[in-house]
């Protein structure tokens, strides 16, 4: 950790790697003035389904201008994606140890509607904070923060679902834990935080801390 502040993108049910940063740094800056990037964790997450990795994506309204700020990205409800996500999560985790314990707290994210992706992700993040019993300091960028700014440890391009996009993150190495379909496909690392809380429950925070303690 070079700095006391980490710079992250917004994220939809963010991956475990992302939450390791949230508990490690005294202050987190969420970039909201970047030009929105598709096919990233900003609007998608990966869960562990019966056939392996199952991506869940939040559709967004197509912008008339290609360069739209993340803070201005709107969610599209042209399809009933919330129902599909809900069914996918149920099928993936209904047999997990802590599904029944947490699922009621998450239901509103698949029944209520939010206009903006950033707002939606922020509300999800607050709910996960409550489940993990953490209270990180979160702030939002007041302007676009240039890459290479020495004041921050920048993970905007290091936490990404596409391997070809990844920059090396020397501060994250996944550790194995029991997963619902692990006997069938083996351990799949760095899935959505949903995978961790449904499988480990109250031990989720200890798992995140154990990864950081190895640094």
From TrEMBL:
InterPro entries: WbqC
Pfam name, any one: WbqC
Protein name: WbqC family protein
